[in-house]
Amino acid sequence: MPNPTGIHHITAVAGNPQQNLDFYSGLLGLRLVKKTVNFDDPSTYHLFYGNAEGRPGSILSFFTSSQVAQGEPDTGSGVAVGLSIPTTSVDFWTDYLSTHNVDFVDPFERFGKLVIGFQDPDGLYLELIGNPAANKKEETGSSSVPAEHAIRGLHGITLAEENYQATGQLLTESLGFKEVTQEHDRILYQSNTDLGGSVELIDNPKLDGKPGKGTVHHIAFRANDKNDQQSIRQNLLGIGYHLTETEDRYYFKSFFFHEPGGALLEVATNSPGFTVDEHTDTLGEDLSLPPKLERKRALIEANLPNLAPVN
Ligand code: ZN
C-alpha cells in the first residue's frame, strides 16, 4: 500500500493564453510559477499556476491553444477543479467575483464546507472551497488578492463516473485515499494532506461532453520520491493497469494511465520541482525550456504568441 499522497497538479485545456493568464494570475491572484511550452507541441504554452514556491498540491496548469475547439464536461473525466480558500474568506470572494463581473453560484454547503461555483473564460468549472486546512498562513505569491484571502492551492478534483466503485477502489487501494462519506450522488475520498487532498466522485451523472478547451486534461497524483513512485507503479501493474513509461518531464518524473472510468491520470514525483531552473523569486518570469528544447529556443520563441505579464 503506497503512502498517502494527494494531488500533485491538475492540468486543463485553455484557449487564448493571454486570457488564461489574465484570469488566473490577474484576477484570481495565483502566481504564474512556470511559463513553458507543451513539450509535445512547443508552438503552444503550458502555463503553471501555484503558490509562492509552486509546491505540489498548489499547481493548476493549462495547455493553451487558440486553435482548440470548445469542450464540455464528460462522464469519465474531471468536471470541476476545487481551489482552497480560508474558511473566513468566503464573503470576500463573493464580493470580489461580483465586483469583477464573474457570475457565480451563491455559496452552498457540501461535505461540511462552503463552496462558490463559477467558470473560467473557457468554461472550465471551478469551485472556491472554504477549507480549514487553508486557514494557516502561507506564502501565496498572490498580487491582486490580499494575502489573508488568497487561494492557497488545490482543494481537489470532482470526477464524473459511470461506475464510481471501480475508480474508488483505485483511489483507496493504489493512491492512498480513504472513502470518507457520501452526500446524494457524491462520494468523498480524502488523503491526509492539506492541499489537493480531496477527490469527489459523482455517481453516473450521464454527461455527454467532449474534450477541448474548458475541460480537465489530466490529474496528477503525488509520489514523494522515485522509490515511492516505483512502488505505486508496481502496485498498478500488479492490478493490471497499462502504464506509460516513467519519463523525465524536467520538473518531475511521471507516468500516465487511464482510470477505470476513462480519465487520464498521472503519478508525478515531488522533486525536483519548479525551482530546478529558476530562482523562487523569479519563477515564471521568463520562458523556461527543458534542455532538449533549449537549443531550439529562437525558433520556439518566434512561434509563440506574445504574452504580456499581468500587473
Ligand atoms: Zn501533468
Please give a structural write-up:
- This protein has one domain: 2,3-Dihydroxybiphenyl 1,2-Dioxygenase, domain 1, CATH 3.10.180.10.
- A hairpin with a 3-residue loop joins strand 14 and strand 15.
- By secondary structure, it is α+β, with helices and mostly antiparallel strands.
- It has six helices and 16 strands.
- Helices cover about 20% and strands about 35% of the residues.
- The mean pLDDT is about 95.
- It has helices spanning about 15-25, 90-100, 165-175, 225-240, 290-295, 295-305; strands spanning about 5-15, 30-40, 40-50, 60-65, 75-85, 105-110, 115-120, 125-130, 155-160, 180-185, 185-190, 200-205, 215-225, 245-250, 250-260, 265-270.
- The radius of gyration is 18 Å and the shape is globular.
- The strands form two sheets. The protein has an eight-stranded mixed sheet. It has an eight-stranded mixed sheet with strand order 6-7-8-5-9-12-11-10, covered by helices on one side.
- Zinc ion (ZN) binds near residues 9, 11, 218, 220 and 266.
Q: Looking at the structure, what is the overall shape? A: globular
Report the mean per-residue pLDDT as an integer. Answer: 94
CATH architecture: Roll
Total beta strands = 16
| The CATH class | Alpha Beta
Looking at CATH, which topology would you report?
2,3-Dihydroxybiphenyl 1,2-Dioxygenase, domain 1
Total number of helical segments?
A: 6
Strands in their spatial order, largest beta sheet: 2-3-4-1-13-16-15-14
| Low-confidence segments | none
